[in-house]
Design goal:
Blueprint lengths: L5 H10 L2 H8 L36 E8 L8 H15 L3 E2 L9 E2 L2 E2 L2 E11 L3 H14 L4 E3 L4 H13 L4 E3 L7 H6 L4 E2 L12 H7 L5 E6 L3 H16 L3 E6 L9 H4 L10 E5 L4 H13 L7 E3 L7 H5 L7 E2 L12 H13 L15 H5 L2 H20 L5 H9 L11 E2 L5 E13 L2 E13 L33 E4 L2 E2 L2
Length: 496
């Protein structure tokens, strides 16, 4: 990689406030989330059969439905998800967005090899399976969608994968749902995920903490749902695989507001080398504040976390959080920048004047900031994959043809190419980072690259193993292919 684009510094600065903005976003799920009046998706009648999606009369077009999340823990990111798809259409299918201040107004003019891509509706999830099933049924059975992009969250992903499996003529591309089950357990042949899962994103973190930071023992606290289980599973498999010991696992329900009883279940700081946190949304700050109240001030060197651990914590908890290590996500920290990622971020600013992103608490903000975070980028990746598959088929949208093209696709994306494994889940590069103090501020810096991690996690997970849970995987040593082989990253540059 060459040159140090200007967006890298700007995104690092924006990450300083990311947590506070996420917290605000998670509390304003009703703001700016209403789909266009003619396209708004609402739950369908339970007795309505699925449409013949993909092979019926008039199927010379893609009738696309997007499953976002406008309510629930991540409801503030509804605009971000739709923006990801809209930007893919603008960058790769010749579309023009209908509003320069909101992605929810959709686009016009998207076309690949003469095949139009029409947005027929936007589904409004709330992080629950029942709601997302109602939304996908409305999009497919009432609005005749033959392709779906989404959903956002883990339990939603499992439900959508099950629906896809029961409706093989429908094509589904995951938005950013990071639970393991949709691809490894459900294995719907028409469900495609061009991103990692929660376990993948923590590959190498346990190795780093045990062999470089000196942790021998760790306690884990994670949201008690499928993504929380998957993310914790990746850390546990990695840390225990290289010889560490996880002494305690605590699982508060997603959306908990008072974490005091769960913090009491954790060992004291003098009883364990470190804590790994998989608590998301507004829960991250609330859980850490409960920890401070019960067990004393934070010391960054004794804490690590998944994607929700970020520099914004310093605003609420002070700069003592510096030193903490952080797992990966769909996008790396802002210092890990390439000409391709710079072009992608610039394209967001060229497409919209502002976007009311979840990162800005629902208020208008710089589009590139939203584009640099994993929620928008995951949906963008799915949109690009759809366009590239249509290029491969010559615009043919017949479900068997389109799905075969997707299964064999390697997508060139701004933050690295993504191919799919045999279960149609992304094989991705993972960038680990650390929170460090620079001139009195806490920033996030890339420290290691783990290339081409797949969902089996070095053989830990498979179709013959249970899905991640409170008890699985066990803490045991294993031979992980990346252990001791992580590629160092210095000043945003992998030292290959």
């Amino acid at each position: 990689m060459t040159s140090r684009p200007k967006h890298g510094k700007r995104l690092l600065a924006s990450l300083l406030v990311i947590f506070a903005l996420i917290a605000a976003a998670c509390g304003n799920g009703g703001d700016g989330t209403t789909p266009p009046a003619d396209d708004g998706a609402t739950p369908a009648d339970e007795g309505t059969p699925a449409a013949d999606a993909g092979d019926g009369e008039g199927d010379n077009e893609v009738r696309l439905g997007v499953l976002g999340q406008c309510e629930g823990p991540f409801g503030g990111f509804h605009e971000d998800t739709v923006a990801g798809v809209a930007l893919a259409m603008a960058n790769h299918a010749g579309a023009t967005v209908n509003s320069d201040t909101s992605a929810l107004e959709g686009w016009e003019g998207a076309e690949v090899n003469g095949t139009p891509i029409e947005l027929v509706g936007i589904g409004c999830g709330d992080d629950t399976p029942d709601t997302i099933l109602g939304e996908i049924r409305q999009l497919v059975e009432q609005q005749n969608a033959n392709v779906i992009i989404g959903p956002l969250s883990g339990d939603e992903g499992i439900a959508v994968a099950e629906y896809a499996k029961a409706n093989p003529e429908l094509t589904v591309l995951s938005g950013i749902a990071g639970s393991q089950e949709p691809t490894l357990e459900v294995q719907a042949p028409n469900y495609f995920r061009f991103h990692g899962d929660g376990a993948i994103w923590n590959a190498g973190l346990g190795d780093l903490l045990h062999n470089e930071a000196g942790w021998d023992t760790a306690a884990v606290i994670a949201d008690d749902y499928s993504f929380g289980h998957t993310s914790a599973a990746g850390f546990i498999a990695d840390f225990c695989g290289v010889g560490g010991e996880v002494t305690t696992r605590v699982f508060p329900p997603l959306g908990t507001t008072d974490y005091s009883q769960y913090i009491q279940q954790l060992p004291d700081p003098d009883e364990v080398d470190g804590y790994f946190w998989v608590v998301g949304g507004t829960g991250t700050q609330a859980a850490l504040e409960a920890f401070v109240n019960a067990k004393g001030d934070l010391t960054g060197e004794q804490h690590a976390g998944n994607l929700f651990f970020n520099p914004g914590l310093a605003q609420a908890l002070g700069t003592n959080i510096a030193g903490a290590y952080v797992g990966g996500f769909a996008t790396p920290p802002g210092d890990f920048s390439t000409p391709e990622s710079e072009e992608y971020l610039n394209s967001a600013n060229e497409t919209w004047e502002t976007l009311p992103s979840g990162l800005s608490g629902g208020e208008p903000g710089e589009p590139a900031t939203a584009a640099g975070f994993g929620f928008m980028y995951g949906y963008y990746s799915a949109g690009v994959a759809l366009v590239k598959a249509l290029e491969e088929t010559g615009g043919d949208v017949a479900h068997e043809t389109l799905q075969d093209a997707l299964a064999n696709l390697t997508v060139e994306l701004p933050y690295g190419d993504v191919s799919l494994d045999e279960n149609r889940s992304g094989v991705v590069d993972v960038v680990l980072s650390q929170l460090v103090e620079r001139d009195g501020e806490v920033v996030q810096e890339s420290v290691a690259l783990i290339p081409e991690v797949d969902q089996t996690f070095g053989g830990t997970f498979g179709t013959d193993t249970p899905p991640p849970s409170r008890d699985f995987p066990p803490c045991e040593e294993s031979d992980l292919p990346w252990a001791g082989n992580a590629i160092p990253v210095e000043n945003g540059e992998p030292q290959r």
